[in-house]
Specification:
Elements: H1 16-22, H2 49-52, H3 56-73, H4 75-86, H5 90-97, H6 105-111, H7 120-134, H8 151-154
Helix pairs in contact: 3-4, 4-5
Length: about 160
Amino acid sequence: MFLAGQLDAVSLVDPFLHQLERAGKGHAIFTSREIPGLIADVLVVRRDLETVCPGATQAVVDGYFQALAFWRSHDEEATSLMAKSCGLGPDEFRQVQQGLLMAGRTENEDAFGLNRAPGSLIGAIGAWEKILGESGESSQSGRLASFLDSRFVKAAAP
């Protein structure tokens, strides 16, 4: 819709932002690089998922860590596969990934505060709640942390 001129602005993640800029169809006015530590991708599942499909959440978490381990131990092959799926060359894919932290098990444990308190994810929640409160998006200060569930990171296969 943005490319068709039906939207004035759009929120994107890489590699889509990179592709848009490369094509000369737009430019970033703000990126998460400007606020390090405040933007995190999170896995969100329905509360009843474990009842409906036991083990599904753990399988996704384990699969993520396995994929990341493969990438780290087979960089050329993994980068080539991911670049191709994004329509990029391997060097261009690496450029897009600069500054992006692909959080492994230790980083996830740190984020949840399992290795040290309060943890980067938990520490950022106060800032998120302040932003949401000031924008009128949320008046439930202090509740975001209650939605975090570290048990799947704790139980992840080594």
